[in-house]
Amino acid sequence: MPQPALVAAGAMLLVCLCLISALQPKPYMDELFHVAQTQAYCRALASSSPSNMLDAIKSTPYDPAISTPPTPYLLVSVVVRYIVLAPFPRLVPVLCSVPALRIASACIAFCALLQMHAILKNVLIKTATRQELLHHYLRIGMSQADWLSALALWLHPISSFFYMMFYTDNLAMLFLLLCMRQSHVFREPTLGKPVRVEYVAALMGVLASSVRQSYMIWHALVVACSVVALAEEMHPKIGRKTLQVERMWAHRATITWILWPHVLAGLLYTGFVAFNGGVAIGHREFHQPQPHWMMFWYFCAYRLIFPYPDACRAEDVTVAGFSRAYLFSALEGTNARNRARMVVLANLVLAGLVIVSIWLGTIVHPFVLADNRHYSFALFRRVLTPSARFLFLPTYMLGFWVLVADLGPFCIATLPLLALGLVPVPLFEPRYFAPPFMISQFLTLLTQSRAARQKWYCGWFSSGIALSQIAAMLALFFFVPFSRPPDAHLPQDASLGRWMP
């Protein structure tokens, strides 16, 4: 009997595909670029044979407005032409139509749910006691609550909103999840030889980065967490209080040997950036890196809005959660007064950093105010106004301390790479937060005890919150359209306006 979570996910995808086909049959927003480029490759390959496939691809012009590599468009067109419809090349345009491409995107999203379930199972095996491992996982399998946790993560509204649309985010996320599943930090402990499995993880990370270049940083984040996990496992228990950096340095040779496929991937990324003269491929004038310091604090607040799969952990958003944060673990031997002073001092320093970031590090990209169909348009026009930005200081601080408490020993690897991946991005779009959000949520599950996840209502509560949020967003998109003039950066799109992240 299929799991109810899988049935619910399939039903949601089917309903969304039917609604978008009926109410928005033409490509919408960024689909205008993605669909057109895929169809261009499909037309070129439809009249070509495998022997001259490369010539057909090279002769197809690439839209200069697309800033990402052609990997997803080539993958779809090649699979359709030479695998699915090899004997019937004239039918290629049918499977490259807008509905067919959206169905393919939904299938990719469904595969992502299966990968989330697999990663969650590995995480639970890593954190289970021996008795739980023997009784629960080997004999019974994952409980219904664990399936609900996987579903809650999959229903993350900013990700699930685009499951029904032909966006590159879905394929990049699937490859990233495959990378995470095979990486040491999330891998099942008994799975194969470490170095061989890391080859697969590195390959999946490279594929994710070939779809969206920003995933180079998220691949590095997964590797950094694996370094921390390896150092924790290799260090003798006698010296558990030594600094993490000392642990990593003491085992640098072994860690490098195990993770060296990722080193090769890093060299490949460096070569790409040097050869390309930057990260973006097209539209470079609007995608130049800029120090947008507020992106990190936006992400901290973002995690408070979407707290699954453990939305019932209210204790982590209290002051008590701050004192348990990993950054203060070194103060455990001090008296209460000194510890309180350090906590107050840390909060004052943090408040100063956030205030300086708001004052000097806020960027409102031209795309944000040029398109009134995005939530960010209303957010910056009505909420994050210059006079109101400082009012959200407590929210950013709260989000940071919750992030620190959730990540535990992975802070040393996660926080710098989060900043590296988010701060250079001048354009605020919530979907840019989806990859680090997924990684941080799985790391949160790793740092918690099994008992903290055993409350039966947590899975239902988290899934209910996620479902209500995505339902509201989809209802706004489908049933509240509005008239609008064509935008300056998308003059070819004269369709009705529909609200989207």
TrEMBL record:
Chief subcellular location: endoplasmic reticulum
Parts of the chain that traverse the membrane: 91-116, 215-232, 253-275, 344-369, 390-420, 460-480
Cell location: Endoplasmic reticulum membrane
Alphabetic keyword roster: Endoplasmic reticulum, Glycosyltransferase, Membrane, Signal, Transferase, Transmembrane, Transmembrane helix
Signal sequence extent: 1-22
Keyword Endoplasmic reticulum belongs to the record: yes
Membrane topology, as annotated: Multi-pass membrane protein
Gene Ontology biological process terms, A to Z: dolichol-linked oligosaccharide biosynthetic process
The EC number(s) this enzyme carries: 2.4.1.256
Top-level taxon of origin: Eukaryota
GO cellular component: endoplasmic reticulum membrane
GO molecular function annotations of the record: dolichyl pyrophosphate Glc2Man9GlcNAc2 alpha-1,2-glucosyltransferase activity
Pathway linked to the protein: Protein modification; protein glycosylation
Pfam families (alphabetical): DIE2_ALG10
Catalytic activity entry: an alpha-D-Glc-(1->3)-alpha-D-Glc-(1->3)-alpha-D-Man-(1->2)-alpha-D-Man-(1->2)-alpha-D-Man-(1->3)-[alpha-D-Man-(1->2)-alpha-D-Man-(1->3)-[alpha-D-Man-(1->2)-alpha-D-Man-(1->6)]-alpha-D-Man-(1->6)]-beta-D-Man-(1->4)-beta-D-GlcNAc-(1->4)-alpha-D-GlcNAc-diphospho-di-trans,poly-cis-dolichol + a di-trans,poly-cis-dolichyl beta-D-glucosyl phosphate = a alpha-D-Glc-(1->2)-alpha-D-Glc-(1->3)-alpha-D-Glc-(1->3)-alpha-D-Man-(1->2)-alpha-D-Man-(1->2)-alpha-D-Man-(1->3)-[alpha-D-Man-(1->2)-alpha-D-Man-(1->3)-[alpha-D-Man-(1->2)-alpha-D-Man-(1->6)]-alpha-D-Man-(1->6)]-beta-D-Man-(1->4)-beta-D-GlcNAc-(1->4)-alpha-D-GlcNAc-diphospho-di-trans,poly-cis-dolichol + a di-trans,poly-cis-dolichyl phosphate + H(+)
Recorded family membership: Belongs to the ALG10 glucosyltransferase family.
Protein role: Dol-P-Glc:Glc(2)Man(9)GlcNAc(2)-PP-Dol alpha-1,2-glucosyltransferase that operates in the biosynthetic pathway of dolichol-linked oligosaccharides, the glycan precursors employed in protein asparagine (N)-glycosylation. The assembly of dolichol-linked oligosaccharides begins on the cytosolic side of the endoplasmic reticulum membrane and finishes in its lumen. The sequential addition of sugars to dolichol pyrophosphate produces dolichol-linked oligosaccharides containing fourteen sugars, including two GlcNAcs, nine mannoses and three glucoses.
Name listed for the protein in its UniProt record: Dol-P-Glc:Glc(2)Man(9)GlcNAc(2)-PP-Dol alpha-1,2-glucosyltransferase
